[in-house]
């Protein structure tokens, strides 16, 4: 028994010794470059970055990546030897990258995403809402605010006791309004009202809610599936004010309507008949409309149509109109509307509390010390300068450069605070409490300065950002060195070398499908339409120019039009024989006449020269590290490569990398 126990202990000791040897190997250098030793922990970050981006991860073993690792260090050492790391252009490049990296930290991205997703969810339904309002300014005198609150509370108790909502609405609302706001969706009401509308069941009423207008009680009347948005175009003919002229206007709109029924495109008919100068050149295009943005009867009509359908002739007080539904868009697709939702959430009042809380949280990082005497002078100055009415001028203040407060090691003057108010020139009610306004504005300013300082300091205080900036700097230094080398070689290369590279692969330098075209650029839509008609009749652009030069800006002929270049003019541009539709770019109108479509073919040397030079440049960059190694000492400790691989695999498990 004693012998067995002793043998087991010996085995444990041997295993522990082996583990210790392996651990010691993992801590040994695996390569020496220019006299400096590099250890596995130096290898991890660059290797894993390349590994995660690799298409064939299994093929990118540590041993396979070793040459790239060494090349990058050799390049970096060479760049430093040449002083590239001290260049002002490098500092600017790194500064630009740093600013882009820290910019997202200026807002609370989680709060923004929550609000954007909330808006997308609410947009699945439209809610018809009525409300009761007791008006009072946001910064009203304390007595006015308390009176308004007491009044809305009494209304709320009356509703709870069974008084009809409509009865109280007419009695309480300014002007005896019923308070019916119609159907609404996200972003159409102050956020507090919108929240009450969507969170209160139909037929019930909310508790009092506060907005900039006063105190409200919200009463949802009806819910329906969201209508979304419609994309519209129209043809409009104005009424002329007399029976005879009005009869002529009606005849014009009828002719337009008949052409539509005969199959003419809406854009062509609008170009010839509409009297809306703002939309004529665009085929009557109006853009997107949501609920509540059109007359109720027109809204119901267009939302009932399918894309491509048009209304009949609509008789409006001052015009005759035909409306086409171009497309319909649902409101509730978060991913498809993410940018729009974020923009709307940021620009409205819903993000204000999140923005304020995020900034105030950063204020905790910096000690705040306020000069109370100077602060009181600020309140007094604003009071005497008509700040409540938006009539004050920041340039006229006294003691503008006096310190107002310190934040950490930074000092902010009275002038700094005054200048911040320029961008928030609200006109407040004369019954507003100035002191409370100034206090809120001051708190917001101090918090925003703290947020700016927090974001500014992130490259020093946040390890991940600091590492990212340092890695970018290393790559930028290497890239500048490589660019300098390749540019010198490209300047010195002889034509025979480039020609040999061109002839090396006969399938590389190819034209895709191209078109032989003529193009006319016009200054107005009417001229462009006449040009298009003449081209449809087979007239050469020179004939067009000689017969119709009024409004023509320039003409051209070429072979360079491809599917990609065509999309620069119009995303859905289709290369087909004959005259194109009119394409508007800014104040100009283009008509293309496609004379011939050319199949793919090889470029001549002169046509491909730019690409050949780019390939030679890339070839120089590929060969440069091998050339550099001759002037740098590199020693690989091959016995340590297995230990390096084991260390990488252990680190991979630790980081959860597959």
TrEMBL record:
- PpiC domain residues are 124-222, 227-327
Q: Which SUPFAM superfamilies match?
A: FKBP-like
Swiss-Prot/TrEMBL keywords: Isomerase, Rotamase, Signal
- Say if the entry is tagged with keyword NADP: no
One annotated GO molecular function is: peptidyl-prolyl cis-trans isomerase activity
Question: Where does the UniProt annotation place the signal sequence?
Answer: 1-23
Q: What is its EC number?
A: 5.2.1.8
Q: Indicate yes or no for the key word Signal.
A: yes
Q: Pfam families under this entry?
A: Rotamase
Its catalytic activity?
Answer: [protein]-peptidylproline (omega=180) = [protein]-peptidylproline (omega=0)
> What name does this protein carry?
peptidylprolyl isomerase
């Amino acid at each position: 028994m004693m012998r067995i126990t002793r043998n087991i202990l010996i085995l444990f000791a041997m295993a522990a010794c082996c583990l210790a040897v392996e651990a010691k190997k993992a801590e040994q250098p695996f390569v020496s470059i220019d006299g400096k030793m590099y250890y596995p922990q130096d290898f991890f970050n660059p290797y894993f970055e390349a590994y995660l981006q690799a298409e064939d991860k299994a093929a990118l073993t540590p041993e396979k990546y070793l040459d790239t690792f060494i090349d990058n260090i050799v390049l970096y050492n060479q760049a430093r030897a040449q002083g590239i790391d001290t260049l002002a252009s490098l500092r600017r490049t790194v500064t630009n990258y740093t600013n882009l990296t820290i910019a997202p930290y200026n807002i609370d991205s989680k709060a923004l995403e929550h609000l954007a997703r909330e808006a997308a969810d609410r947009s699945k339904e439209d809610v018809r809402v009525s409300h009761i309002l007791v008006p009072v300014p946001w910064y009203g005198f304390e007595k006015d605010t308390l009176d308004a609150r007491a009044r809305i509370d009494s209304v709320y108790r009356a509703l709870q006791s069974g008084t009809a909502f409509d009865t109280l609405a007419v009695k309480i609302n300014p002007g005896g309004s019923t308070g019916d706001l119609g159907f609404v969706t996200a972003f159409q009401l102050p956020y507090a009202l919108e929240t009450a509308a969507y969170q209160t069941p139909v037929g019930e009423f909310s508790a009092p809610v506060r907005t900039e207008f006063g105190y409200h009680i919200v009463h949802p009347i009806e819910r329906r599936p969201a209508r979304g948005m419609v994309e519209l175009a129209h043809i409009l003919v104005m009424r002329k004010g007399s029976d005879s002229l009005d009869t002529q206007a009606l005849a014009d709109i009828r002719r337009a309507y008949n052409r539509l029924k005969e199959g003419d495109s809406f854009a062509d008919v609008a170009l010839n008949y509409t009297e809306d100068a703002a939309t004529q050149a665009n085929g009557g295009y109006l853009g997107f409309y949501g609920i509540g943005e059109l007359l109720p009867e027109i809204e119901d009509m267009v939302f009932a149509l399918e894309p491509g359908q048009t209304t009949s002739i609509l008789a409006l007080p001052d015009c005759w109109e035909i409306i086409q539904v171009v497309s319909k868009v649902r409101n509730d697709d978060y991913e498809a509307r993410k940018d729009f939702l974020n923009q709307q959430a940021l620009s409205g009042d819903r993000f204000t509390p999140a923005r304020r809380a995020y900034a105030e949280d950063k204020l905790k990082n910096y000690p705040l010390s306020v000069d109370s005497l100077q602060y009181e002078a600020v309140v007094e100055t604003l009071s005497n300068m008509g700040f409540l009415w938006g009539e004050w001028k920041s340039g006229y203040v006294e003691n503008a450069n006096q310190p107002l407060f310190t934040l950490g090691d930074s000092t902010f003057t009275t002038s700094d605070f005054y200048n911040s108010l320029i961008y928030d020139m609200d006109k407040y009610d004369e019954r507003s409490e100035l002191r409370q306004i100034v206090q809120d504005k001051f708190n917001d300013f101090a918090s925003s300065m703290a947020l700016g300082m927090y974001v500014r300091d992130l490259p020093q205080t946040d390890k991940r950002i600091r590492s990212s900036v340092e890695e970018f700097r290393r790559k930028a230094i290497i890239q500048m060195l490589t660019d300098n080398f390749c540019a010198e070689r490209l300047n010195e290369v002889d034509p025979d070398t480039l020609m040999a590279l061109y002839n090396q692969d006969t399938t590389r330098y190819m034209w895709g499908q191209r078109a032989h075209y003529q193009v006319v650029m016009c200054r107005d839509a009417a001229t462009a339409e006449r040009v298009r008609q003449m081209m449809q009749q087979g007239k050469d652009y020179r004939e067009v120019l000689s017969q119709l030069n009024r409004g023509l800006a320039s003409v051209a002929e070429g072979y360079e039009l491809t599917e990609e270049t065509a999309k620069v003019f119009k995303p859905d541009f289709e290369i087909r024989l004959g005259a194109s539709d009119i394409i508007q770019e800014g104040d100009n109108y283009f008509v293309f006449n496609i004379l011939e479509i050319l199949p793919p073919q090889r470029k001549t040397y002169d046509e491909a020269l730019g690409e050949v030079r780019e390939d030679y440049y890339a070839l120089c960059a590929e060969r440069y590290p091998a050339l550099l190694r001759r002037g740098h000492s590199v020693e690989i400790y091959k016995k340590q490569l297995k230990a390096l691989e084991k260390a990488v695999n252990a680190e991979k498990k630790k980081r959860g990398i597959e």
